[in-house]
Amino acid sequence: MARTICIANQKGGVGKTTTSVNLASSLAELGRRVLIVDMDPQGNASSGLGVKRYDNQENNIYQVLIGEKSLKDVAQSTNTQSLCIASANPDLVGAEIELVDMPHREYRLRQAIESVSNEFDYVLIDCPPSLGLLTVNSLCAADSFMVPLQCEYYALEGLSQLLNTCGLIKKSLNPALRIEGIVLTMFDTRNNLSHQVVAEIQSHFGDKVFKSIIPRNVRLSEAPSHGQSILDYDSKSIGARKYRELAEELDQRVYGSAQEESAPAENPITPQEAPKAEGEMTLKEEGSSLTQPQSSQESPVEGEAHV
After folding, report:
1. Per-residue confidence (pLDDT) for residue 257, from 0 to 100
2. Tell me, what's the pLDDT at 8?
3. Alpha helices, DSSP H, located in 122-191
C-alpha cells in the first residue's frame, strides 16, 4: 500500500510544487515507486516535470474527478525512472463547481487513489493554494499531510488556519489524517528573521519539523523552466542535496519504523504537544514575534482533531 501524502498550504509561493516535484524525484532515486497527483489548476508540477498541460486535454486529473477516466488511465511516466504523474490542466478550475452536486464529492480522489495504491510506494498530492474542495478532496484522500513553510513571518499566520482546517477534516471526514511534518523552505542564512522563524517552529512542533531545511537556491528556481527536477538540472547543487536529505528523512519515518506505525496508539501530535503548538502559534498583529495568549480555549486541532 502506498503512503499518500498531501502537500498543502493555502498560502501561495511557499514551495509546495517545488517540494512535490523534487521530493518525488529524490524518493524515486532511492528506488521508491512514486506517483505525483497534480491538483493545482495551474499545473506547475506537471510542467516542472516536462509535461505540457495542453498536451493532456483528455487524460488528466480533471477527468478522474468527474468519473470519466481512472487514475491508472491518466498516470504517465516521466523522464525520471519510477516516477509517474497524473497531470492537471486549467479545466480543474471548474471542477469545484461540478463536484458540488456529485455524491461523495469529498472522496472522489480517495476512491481513485485506492485503485492504484498497490502499484506505488508513495502518492504525493500537490495541492492548490487554497482551502477549497480540491484541497478537501486531497486531504480526505491522504494518510498524512506535509506543510511546506516559508521562513518568513506571514507564512506563520496561514499555518494556524491550515491546522484548524485539517483538524475539522480529521474530525468529520478522514479520521486517519495526521501531520507528516513541516518542511521549512526558502531559508536565507543572511536573514535574522529566517533564523527566528526556524527557532519558533522547532520549539512549537519539535520532531514534527523535518531536520532538512531547504535554502533559497537559484538552481531550484531555474529547474522548472527546463521541465526538470533539481536532481536532473543540477544534481550537485545545495538544493538537490537538501531534497535528497529530506527524502531520506521521510523514507526513514515511513518505512524505517514499521513497528511504530502499526501501533494503534500512534498519534503524530500528542495531546500534550497540541495545546502548546496551538497556544503559542497565536500571532500578534502589531509585533513581529509570536506570543502566548492567556486564553486556554481549545481549537479543533488541539482539542477535537489531534492533528
Report:
1. 53
2. 94
3. 133-141, 153-172
Kindly report the backbone phi and psi dihedral angles of residue 133, in degrees, each rounded to the nearest multiple of 5, phi listed first: -65, -30
Q: Is residue 284 part of a domain?
A: no
Which is nearest to 220 in space by CA: 188, 195, 190? 188
Supply 277's cell numbers: 503548538
Domains in the chain, number: 1
- Considering the entire predicted model, what is its pTM? 0.82
> What span, in angstroms and rounded, lies between the C-alpha atoms of 95 and 134?
8
For residue 17 the three cell numbers come to 510544487
Classify residue 158: in a domain, yes or no. Answer: no
Query: Which domain does 122 fall in, by range?
Result: 3-151+182-191+206-265
Query: What percentage of the chain has pLDDT greater than the value 70?
Result: 83
**Please, what sign has the CA dihedral across residues 34, 72, 117, 65?**
positive
Q: Which three cell numbers stand for residue 171?
A: 474530525
Residue ranges for the chain with pLDDT beneath 70: 257-307
CA pair distance 231, 41, nearest whole angstrom = 25
The grid coordinates listed for 5 are 501524502
How big is the chain, counted in residues? 307
Question: What are the CB-based long-range contacts (under 8 Å, 24+) for 106-110?
Answer: 106/133, 106/136, 106/137, 106/140, 106/173, 107/137, 107/140, 107/141, 108/64, 108/65, 108/67, 108/137, 109/37, 109/39, 109/64, 109/65, 109/137, 109/138, 109/140, 109/141, 110/137, 110/140, 110/141
Query: Which residues make beta-bridge pairs with 178?
Result: 144
Q: Flag whether 164 is in a domain.
A: no
Q: Which amino acid is at 74?
A: V
> Residue 53 domain-assigned?
yes
* Per-residue pLDDT tens digits for 196-233: 989 989 998 899 999 999 999 999 999 999 999 999 99
